[in-house]
Amino acid sequence: MFLTVPNSKGAFYGGKGVVQFLKQLVGASFIIGWNVLVTSIILLVIRVLIPLRMSEEELRIGDDAAHGEEAYALAGQGKRERSIRNGGEHDNV
Predict the structure, then answer these.
(1) 44, 80, 84, 42: which is closest to 62 by C-alpha?
(2) Euclidean distance between CA atoms 71 and 52, whole angstroms
(3) How far apart, in whole angstroms, are the C-alpha atoms of residue 19 and residue 8?
(4) Are 54 and 66 in contact (CB under 8 A)?
(5) Are 78 and 91 in contact (CB under 8 A)?
(6) pLDDT tens, residue by residue, 53-77
(7) For 11-63, how does the pLDDT look when each residue is reduced to its tens digit (9 = 90+)?
(8) DSSP per residue over the chain, as a string?
(9) Any stretches that span the bilayer, and where are they (predicted)?
(10) Which of 34, 12, 33, 32 is CA-nearest to residue 21?
(11) What distance in Å separates the CA atoms of residue 52 and residue 44, rounded to the nearest whole number?
(12) pLDDT in the model for residue 20
């Protein structure tokens, strides 16, 4: 499981360290590839069950109407000064 290089000082201190560094680079590349593969499979399975993207209409309306909240409400302590839903203004929230 562990592929160490005996009597190695490390990748940047000379000797056989470059071999160890290359083994670690191959291992990291494998993990990155594995994560991409498994995540893609999971997303494909989820896509069969539910849509991964909002409809064009929901995208046009925006987060406020779709979720009932505003992203990055900066009007102090997370509260917004005015509420805009579906293109119209409402009372303060």
Answers:
(1) 84
(2) 20
(3) 9
(4) yes
(5) no
(6) 878 887 777 766 666 666 666 655 5
(7) 666 666 677 788 889 999 999 999 999 999 999 999 999 988 878 887 777 76
(8) -----TT---TTSSTTHHHHHHHHHHHHHHHHHHHHHHHHHHHHHHHHHS-SS--HHHHHH-HHHHHS--TT--SSTT--SSEEETTEEE---
(9) 25-50
(10) 12
(11) 9
(12) 77
Tokens of 82: 């005015």
pLDDT greater at residue 93 or residue 7:
7
Residue bearing tokens 């993207």: 53
Residue the block writes with tokens 């498994």: 38
**Residue found under tokens 């987060």:** 63
d(CA 11, CA 29): 17
Q: Which amino acid is at 4?
A: T
